[in-house]
Structures
1.
Amino acid sequence: MKKIKLKDIETGAPKKLNKEKIKKETGKLKIKLEELQNLLYAESKHGLLVILQGMDASGKDGVLRNVFDTVNPLGCRVTAFKAPTENELKHDFLWRIHIHTPRKGMIHIFNRSHYEDVLIQKVHKWVDDKIIEKRYEHINNFERLLTESGTVVLKFYLHISKDEQQVRLNERMSDKTKMWKYNEGDLLEREYWDGYMKAYEAAFENCSEYAEWNIVPCDNNWYKEYYIAKKLVETLESLKMKYPGFKDMKDKK
């Protein structure tokens, strides 16, 4: 993937768009997504892995709540990756990830992912650059294995501005429905903003060989949801899926 400079990419919705019209389009896309997810599950020839990455308060939880709310829970799983446990740290960094990838017919969503091991660890210099470079290679091989095994990998970076992030973090301290999300560490991590931008840019450049990144403007949630829903629908439609007939089911036995 060509070099990306995040400072050159808008974090807000295109000004020409009509908010209400886009929200209606999103509603239509979500109905289509429901149909396609049912088809994906029935055909069971592909899996879909959706990776959500972004700075704190960029809206990862909102995507789960407002884009995937029409999807049948039977065919969808969400994994939120936190700091590795003591046991996980005793294995390679992909060990805890692979078990959560989707079987055929399923959509699995990662709220953060294996990319944390080339982001936060790079920013805080918990490992040296040689290890980070090797991890880029391991990630590419991992995503190659997934794609060649029938898993479609969709990666979304939720691109929020530093100013909008501050607004949302402040809301967590004043809105009782969001206060539970407040984490003092989120404010501390803001001090490393520039470092994170560089780490993300390096990940885009080095880890796009088998699954390209989608840079999603996130200052306006209504546009973020439309963007992701549209990409999901387009991707699933491109698989040219068909419902299996009686003969197909009989042949599986």
2.
Amino acid sequence: MIKLSEISTRPPESLKKIKIKKKTDDLARRLGDLQHILYGEGKQSLLLVFQGMDASGKDGATRKVFKYCSPSGVSAYAFKKPTDEEFAHDFLWRIHKHMPGKGEIQIFNRSHYEDILIQRVHNWIDEDRVIKRMAAINDIEELIKFDNHTTILKFYMHISQERQKEKLQERIDDPRKNWKHNENDWKEAELWDEYRKCYEDIINWSKHPWHIIPVDVRWYRDFMIAKIIVETLEGLNMQLPILSSKK
């Protein structure tokens, strides 16, 4: 049973920032090479799920980790409040159409888990529906894994309450970040304990495991995410198609 309160949101003190940033850049370059092979092979796909409290760095991680990847074959989609059309369908309808095709990497900035997070925290759905939706999420992840050869990596962006407040304040103080400011984020931040409980349930109820990524220090966040993705892709035994020799 994972308890988030028992996991540090910071890197080990022995790590050196300069060395880790160099390793991260090397990993990002390697990821660019692996993404090229994945796209060229066209037989497998990768789904990345970034979930976390507001200001936990989902956008930043995407920019830093995938900076050497080709726009071809890599997509990022940010799930926001469902539209009227999406509300008129089952909660996974809007998710399924954004799943990666063969050869693609799809990044979810927030995801299908939103429908058992914010809706549960605000008591818009009851616990019976939460349990059934979690079962449906496990099922769709199993479906894309076995039916479409999709590897799933799920990252919980583990930020401290103090660091979240600092990052939200930056959106007010820094003109370059003003566009990110949303007054409602401060109201949601007041529900910290409720969200933490829901995240712990999601992590512990999932059939596909989550990676808990400490994000108070951004350079460590980027390193950990890049390392996990590269190691995963290297384990897929991908090969670029080669023309057969002519006689």
